[in-house]
Amino acid sequence: MAKLAINLLQPELLPKRQLITLSRVVALWCLLLVLMLLLIVYSQVTVDNLSRDYRQASEKQVEQQQLLDSLQQQVSQNRANPELIERLDTLKVVLANKKALHQQLTDQSQTQAAGYSAAMTELASLHHKHVSLEQVIMNKGQLTFSGLAKRPDAVPQWLAGFESSTFLSGKHFTHFSLSENKQGLTNFVVSSAANNAEKGPN
After folding, report:
1. Which of 72, 97, 133, 171 is the most buried (most CB within 10 A)?
2. Where is 92: in which H helix or E strand?
3. How far apart are CA 134 and CA 200, in angstroms?
């Protein structure tokens, strides 16, 4: 078949394609605009979510603070009456005293039966509300008292009452010690000398 047309335009004579054209620049700017819009939308959504979380956290903090204030008010209203506390402490001292006396009555290794009943009867009648006996020892005429006192001056006041006692009157207490424990109570030990000349009843 015979050629009817001859291409005289050689490849090296064809115009080179340009990398930067108006259409490409417009397309690039449109793409950047879309990306910027997406970034703005994402940032706005993130800010809205953070703002909502902050509001919720603030509201929860306010509720917890109100609950704390309410609980503190209830605790302050539930404080015990000082007068009732004083009466309770007195009852504790009395019960401790009776318990100590009962232990001494049932402990035959440290006490003598002769004269013990009379001594315990007089000690019970000379009870001081701020003094709690923990141990009473009678050994060959020597008496030793040890226990707790709510106030240091309560021990001398309690001992002063022995002058009206038949069994305890005239005893000379040669050993007297006071010390404060961790609970703020006073530990005391009082001992009399054996074979003291006893005075008659007052």
Report:
1. 133
2. helix 82-106
3. 28
Q: How open is the CA angle 193-157-192, to the nearest 5 degrees?
A: 5
> Given 3.30.429, 1.10.10, 3.30.1360, 3.90.1150, which CATH number is that of 110-191?
3.30.1360
198 touches 163 (CB < 8 A)? no
Tens of pLDDT, residues 117-157 = 666 777 777 778 888 888 888 777 678 888 888 888 888 88
DSSP H or E run through 134: strand 131-139
Q: Which residue, chain included where needed, has tokens 């703020």?
A: 184
Please give the model's pTM, rounded to 2 decimal places.
0.37
Confidence (pLDDT) at 28:
92
pLDDT greater at residue 115 or residue 50: 50
Say how far apart CA 141 and CA 201 lie, in whole Å. 17
Grouping H, G, I as helix, E, B as strand and the rest as coil, residue 110 is coil
The residues near 120 (Cβ < 8 Å, ≥ 6 apart) are 101, 104, 105, 136
Query: DSSP letter string over 24-82?
Result: HHHHHHHHHHHHHHHHHHHHHHHHHHHHHHHHHHHHHHHHHHHHHHHHHHHHHHTPPPH
